[in-house]
Amino acid sequence: MNFLGLALSLIFVLIPIVLSRTLNLGLERDTIIATVRSIIQLLAVGYILTFVFGSDNYIYIILMIALMIVAATQNARKKGATIQGITWKLIGTFIFVEILTQAILLGFHIIPATAQYIIPISGMVVGNSMVLSILFLNRFTAEVETRQDETELILSLGGTPKQAVQTSLITSIKASLIPTIESQKTIGLVQLPGMMSGQIIAGADPVQAVQFQLLILFLLLTTAAVTSIMLGFLSYPTLFNKQMQMLKIREDS
Predict the structure, then answer these.
(1) How far is CA 155 from CA 16, 152, 168, 241, in A?
(2) pLDDT in tens, 170-195
(3) Where does the pLDDT of residue 251 fall: very low under 50, low under 70, confident under 90, or very high at 90 and above?
(4) Which tens digit of pLDDT belongs to each residue from 70-97?
(5) Please, which of 51, 82, 99, 104 could form a disulfide with 249 given CB 3.0 to 4.6 Å?
């Protein structure tokens, strides 16, 4: 694709803007901002990756991953602002998931230890972990608020903080994992994944593209499970004080 083709593809941005204007949805400004940001960010990343891939220096690889984690944390923390210390909990979760997945991929020589493989896969891992964090935090904070009376009753009867929030915690973890699990059930039937489609368009053998896509699917399944569970067990203790009394959740500083 050349820049002319990219310019013509803006028709797909114009259509939702016209529909929003016609139906008075008020989404025109957000759509334009999102489009401009995506163009600037992706083009900038494209030039940066060209430099990083060319140098293949591990320092640049680490810096790129760190940038991804910082950006993901800034986005996800908004949904968990009422949980004390959520920023550091998110950073710890993202770093742990990244180290775990890369240790398996590189330790078993599933992928080469080059920037061309490490950075794109890290982007998928951190990005998926961010989405799962948002889903979990959104549901968990809502569950805690809804079940506050139930939680305080369990505490008053001698229950531990973990027992008091067990239902909210498990419900939130399961709810955040459902989209990942359900999407894998219909993969290849309802949709062709982006990575697989991109490889095929680029001329790769379809079977090899499928094999690589399966690797990513399995990887993201682990990412989803570890992210939700780790973030959940890091978050719930901060809802209680040392006397095992439930605290009023406040915004993270």
Answers:
(1) 50, 5, 14, 12
(2) 999 999 999 888 888 877 666 666 66
(3) very low
(4) 999 999 998 888 888 899 999 999 999 9
(5) 82
Give the pLDDT mean for 31-58.
88
The pTM of the full predicted model, rounded to 2 decimals, is 0.83
Measured distance CA(137)–CA(144) in Å, rounded: 10
Which is more confident, 145 or 188?
145
d(CA 216, CA 72): 19
CA–CA distance, 76 with 6 (Å, rounded to integer) = 30
Three-state secondary structure along the chain? CCHHHHHHCCHHHHHHHHHHHHCCCCCHHHHHHHHHHHHHHHHHHHHHHHHHHHHCCHHHHHHHHHHHHHHHHHHHHHHHCCCCCHHHHHHHHHHHHHHHHHHHHHHCCCCCCCHHHHHHHHHHHHHHHHHHHHHHHHHHHHHHHHCHHHHHHHHHCCCCHHHHHHHHHHHHHHHHHHHHHHHHHCECCCECCHHHHHHHHCCCCHHHHHHHHHHHHHHHHHHHHHHHHHHHHHHHHHHECCCCCECCCCCCC
